[in-house]
Amino acid sequence: QCSSRWITFRKATTNEKGAFNTTYRFTSTTRKTRYRFRALLPRQAGYPWLEGHSKPAKILVTPVRRKHRAR
Asked: 30-45: per-residue pLDDT in tens?
């Protein structure tokens, strides 16, 4: 079941053209899971754009099992 809430995981600012990028590492995903992300864009001083948000992007995460080393 999907949650209808959006959770903030990182805040970023844009460059002079209004573009941004960010990364996120899925450290607690233990099975194949589909996540939805969107960018929330607050108004920034000095920029002409209004606040808004992007369309949600769907991401399928498949965890990688790491081999444990014997000690």
From this structure: 999 999 888 887 887 8
**β-bridge mates for residue 2, sequence order:** none
Question: Can you say how many angstroms the Cα of residue 54 is from the centroid of all Cα atoms in its chain?
Answer: 12
Number of C-beta neighbours around residue 63 at 10 A: 13
Supply 42's token pair: 């607050």
Please tell me the pTM assigned to this model: 0.61
CA 20/CA 10 separation, integer angstroms = 12
Nearest residue to 32 (alpha-carbon basis) of 67, 64, 68, 66: 64
Nearest to 14 by CA among 41, 51, 50, 38: 41
46: region left, alpha or beta (phi > 0 left; psi from -120 to 50 alpha): left
